[in-house]
Amino acid sequence: MDELIAQFTTITGATVRNAETYLKVSDGDLPQAIQLYFDTGGADMESGPSTQKALRASEPTTAASGSGSGSGVNSAYDEDEAIARRLQEEFYGGAGGAGSGGENGVRAPIARTRDTLIGGGDDYGYAETMAARRMRAAIASSRRERSTPNVWASEGADHSGLLSGFAGGASESSSRPSKLAEIFRPPFEIMTNLSFQDARDEAKEVEKWILVNIQDNSLFACQALNRDIWKAAEVKATVKENFVFLQMDRAGRDGKDYLRLYMANAVDDVALFASGTKAEDVFPHIAIIDPRTGEQVKVWTDVPKKPLEFVMVLHEFLDRYSLKVDAKNPVQRKTKPKSSVAHMTEDEMMQLAMQNSLGSTSTPPGATSDPDDLTKTGGPSSDAGDLMEFEDAPEHQADTSEKQESVFWRIRGDNHHAEPLNGPDVTRIQFKMSDGSRVVRKFLLKDRVERLFEYVKADLLPEHQEKRKSAADDKEDSLVGKEFELVSLGKKLIDHLEETIDEAGLKMGTVMVEIVD
Fold it and tell me: Which residues form the UBX domain (predicted)?
């Protein structure tokens, strides 16, 4: 009890006697006693009860003593009444006002006064009460702000509180739901908190492509995309470096706006039903948008399964397309397939009928096709011709051709490649041949670019030649000993031999191998 009294007096500044009284009334509940103290303004609760006890104690005495004692009590009340009347007369202007009030039976009106309120000991703790209430309101407000989930938290932030906010606190009570929520969490670290139009403006300013992902949260494939692709470190690094990334829900306002622009047949369930398309055939939707024109440059028709393959596709796109003003991007060499049979020629209808009869795999009805495929002709053998074309001045080519030729032939062709062990200083590089075949090898970030030429000379071209011989019955010309060029993101690597792979920007990159005729 003494400890409670000490805490009460420390918090409220009340006397020990008042502390004992409030604690007794609250049955020893300290918070309730403090609340009662502030609610009553710190009133002395001993005065009222003691007076009532005295009056109740005097009642038997009055009854026993008879009329003498009763007249004494009445005289005391009369004196009090006279004092009160006199004070009232003084306050309202003297006996004249009081007399007139008595004659007419109407009290004189209260005179208007003007005073200044000054805080002090006579305010019965009102200021302290209001301050305490404001303090409690501020604490509650700060707690609400801390509990509000913020999806745009930084990458290094602890997401346990964030997940708890989205799960209604369920993730705090169970470790398993918390882990599942973290696994399938959207990639907030690389997402851009902008509308589609604002993202276009931002991308034009920083010269980056727009990577769009439309999700349907009812489909597991969309959740698996968050788990397997967007969480991968190599994917996050590539997207952060080269894209403005937007992930939108198909049911949200931004998602519906995007679908109305590019996929009207999938804007809602009614549109999907009308087009004979299932949601799982359309979502998740991944596309690359040109921020300058708003055109869909590339659309994924299949859901990416492996992060490394997805990164390679992104780097291949970056090799073929550029936002530079002087760059020539691939153009469509095929006509877009006609969606209406009425607009097809007789040959096109015959081909369509043959495809349907053979049960050939094609894009599901209503699903989008990849515009990037229309820039390729014939098949994978034409991929090399789809690279960005950079025109150099003829005189510049003449000046540098002899120098590059001499540098190329000085590079060793017998230094075979041994892949390093996995580590933070190791990266993967994809080599793409002119026939579309790809080879992925690991290199150290500190290796010089010249090491890539040595690998192609000593290992890649001989291995590729053996595969071509077995496939073409030894009728193909030999590639070994021929001059070649390595091109990445539109730049010729022969000019960057002394740079490291990291300095040349080849980390997780794609290198095109072009044989010089």
Answer: 422-514
Q: Which of 377, 408, 437 is the last residue of a domain?
A: 377
Residue 434 has pLDDT above 60, yes or no: yes
Instruction: Quote the domain boundaries for residue 427.
Output: 394-515
129 with 277, same domain? no
The residue among 517, 388, 513, 383 whose CA lies nearest residue 453 is: 513
Per-position DSSP letters for 427-452, written without gaps between them:
EEEEEE-TTS-EEEEEEETTSBTHHH
Q: So what's the pLDDT on residue 60? A: 46
The residues, any chain, with a CB within 8 Å of residue 443's CB and separated by 6 or more, are 419, 420, 426, 427, 428, 429, 451, 452, 501
**φ, ψ (nearest 5 deg) of residue 246:** -125, 125
Question: What backbone phi and psi angles, to 5 degrees, belong to 212?
Answer: -115, 135
Kindly state the tokens that stand for 48: 């009222």
CA distances 137 to 179, 187, 206, 219, 440, Å, are: 34, 35, 44, 43, 61
Q: Average pLDDT of the chain?
A: 74
Last residue of a domain, one of 311, 342, 377: 377
Give the DSSP per-residue string, 221-256: HHHHHIIIIITSHHHHHHHHHHEEEEEEETTSHHHH
How many folded domains does the chain comprise?
3
Identify whether residues 198 and 259 lie together within a single domain.
yes
Query: By the 8 A CB rule, do 49 and 34 touch?
Result: no
Q: Residues 368, 301: contact at Cβ < 8 Å?
A: yes
- pLDDT single digits (tens) 439-485: 999 999 999 999 999 999 989 888 888 887 766 555 556 777 788 88
Please give the single-letter amino acid code of residue 200.
R
Supply the CATH number for residue 225's domain: 3.40.30.10
Answer yes or no: are the C-beta atoms of 16 and 9 closer than 8 Å. yes
DSSP 473-492: TT-SPP-TT--EEEEETTEE
271 and 142 in a single domain? The answer is no
CB-based contact 336:260 (threshold 8 Å): no
Q: Are residues 232 and 143 in the same domain?
A: no
Helix or strand (DSSP H, E) at 214: strand 209-215
To the nearest 10°, report the CA torsion of 490, 493, 496, 497: 170
Query: What are 442's strand-pairing partners?
Result: 428
